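REQUEST ID: PR-0412
SUBMITTED BY: lab tech R.K.
PRIORITY: routine
TASK: structure prediction, single protein chain
INPUT:
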Amino acid sequence: MPGNKPIHNKPQIVLVSHGDRGDASDDVLRDARLKSLQKQLQARFSECQLSAVTISDDGALSEALRANPHAIVVSLLFSKGYFFTQKIASIAAQASDSAIILSPFVENAALARLVADAAGGKDILLVGHGSGKSDASANATRALALLIEQVSSSNVICGFLEQSPYAVDLASQAQASGTKMHVMGLFLEAGLHGGEDFESITRAAGDACCGASIIGDHYGLADLLETEIKRSLEHWASVD
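STATUS: complete
OUTPUT:
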């Protein structure tokens, strides 16, 4: 029976994030939230090998999959843009023909509920990365906004770092109009984008900002990932 398989037949779980940027030069601080998720999830999946790698560490994902190609690859990105398709999905497929590659969790309704709960019914400024080269980030952010509005009473507006409408401009407009909102950043780490850039947005919002956080700071993220990993393990057991 699948439940009686020896431990060494279990697939490994590989968490993959973009990698911290900015001033996180301290090894303790660098990728701190990725390391925290790894620790939390390892405790919940003690029978599995669980590793964490970053896209910025060139070759790390391929190396992990060569060591154990029977893997569940968990993308900690926020769209199916270039970094997911070319730096995770493509590399994983080349390194292993048996790996299960999970889609970015931004598409998950559980994430919408997590954001809605954090906002506590307040309106939300949802901050995505955005890009002048691809619509993937903006489309994923807007799709999440629709999910949030479906599961809550919050009105959600989307702003971006690298395309219009710029989040900092929307924050300034909220400050001028007195519109209260929770500012939520679609970032895992508090490095460059989730730290310096995000803080500039909350400063621009001033008194209009009644709460601010990035996704990587929410404990519920580990619960969300646990559910998705369990579903993949069950699928693997059913077909193995």
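NOTES: Residues 1-8 have pLDDT under 50 and may be disordered.
REVIEWED BY: pending
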